[in-house]
């Protein structure tokens, strides 16, 4: 399935690009995610914890940049992971593009996701998955903006060198998928009522 999202970053495009390319710095902004290391071929190891009602899933996997075009401000990241209790896996290709937007930057994200094994049953409702992805993207964007706004957040120093990065936020708590799904269902009902 293909999922599309976008968000605003309060930095000029070149600075926003540099922030988004600093994976160790921004990884804690993703709800439920933790960066656990790097591979010998410049990949990133990590895990994501998700709770869907009574079911707790914990995916462990690896992601690699397969394209990084600083001039076009476009990147593609390929990742795959498996639930640590053997309940299936997920793989995805994330493409993001940055463009100027007002006083900042717009990030457009396209994610192609494939679920396998028992965990794939959660992917049957594309609308629900899209809604959950939108909620996660919004939380990531809020955390990223908070990181950028923090004292010492960086950017470029007067001499043109990168400023000292701000301390990364603490690792996010596991994603509460149940509450996210309730939010998505509520939004779907509101859309249905507005059409009536």
Descriptive report:
The chain is α+β, with helices and mostly antiparallel strands and 196 residues long. The chain is 28% helix and 39% strand. Strands 1, 2, 3, 4, 5, 6, 7 and 8 form an eight-stranded mixed beta sheet that branches. A hairpin with a 5-residue loop joins β5 and β6. α3 packs across α4. It is globular, with a radius of gyration of 17 Å. The two termini are 29 Å apart.
Strand percentage, roughly?
Answer: 35-45%
* Mean residue pLDDT: 78
Q: What is the CA-based Rg, rounded?
A: 17 Å
Terminal-residue CA separation: 29 Å
Tell me, what's the shape?
A: globular
Main β-sheet description: 8 strands, mixed
Helical residue percent? 25-40%
Number of helices: 4
Please give a handful of descriptors for the protein shown.
196 residues, alpha+beta, eight-stranded mixed sheet, globular
Secondary structure blueprint with pairings:
Blueprint: E1 2-9, H1 13-20, H2 23-26, E2 33-38, E3 44-52, E4 55-69, E5 74-83, E6 89-101, E7 104-116, H3 126-149, E8 175-176, H4 177-195
Parallel strand pairs: 3-8
Antiparallel strand pairs: 1-7, 2-3, 3-4, 4-5, 5-6, 6-7
Helix pairs in contact: 3-4
